[in-house]
Amino acid sequence: MNYVFYIVLGYLSGSVLYSYFLPLWLKGLDVTRDTPDGNPGAFNCISKAGWPLGLLALACDVLKGAAPVLLAANALGTSEWAFALVAAAPAAGHAWPVFRRFRGGKAIAVSFGAALGLWPVWQPFGVLAACYLFFSLVVRLEPHRFRSIVTYLCFGAWNLIRFGTAPAALGCALTALTVISRHWRPEPAEEPPRVRFALRRQE
Questions:
Q1: Nearest C-alpha neighbor of 119 from the set 163, 157, 87, 158
Q2: Beta strands in the chain (DSSP E)
Q3: At residue 56, does pLDDT exceed 70?
Q4: For a FRET experiment, which of 3, 27, 148, 167 has its CA 20 to 30 Å from that of 49?
């Protein structure tokens, strides 16, 4: 029952879409309107509401993933299988939020937060960040949807290979599946996936 409390806490924490609600509350601005994807996430918040509010919302989206996972890990440990659901709950809340009729975002920022909440086990966060940077700056996968799918496939697979069926690894894999599911559907007028090598000599 103790884990159930943190699962619910993580889900409710993830359900607060700061990148959507902060601009709405402070500026009366709906960041999902007149955008290509209608996503209530940090990118649209920054684009529509400006950098200061966007960065604040991004920090809150990361923190809402980190806090419940870190609290549960310190209070109960990470050895029980139910911790996998604790680790995945914030991303699920962001993807299917109860406070917005289950119409959520793509869960990228909150997934970084959940990985950060596993500290002092730093490898999941480090691998997620490294994959995103690699597929953004070295082997550039486009469009963004394709990049996210490949990044989280690598992230989920690495955790299962590295840590096996440890609850934290299963939680990372469930988080990866959540993010992938939110990126699976192509956006309108989306270009076909392509790969570009950033270090390739320009002709």
A1: 87
A2: 139-142, 194-197
A3: yes
A4: 148
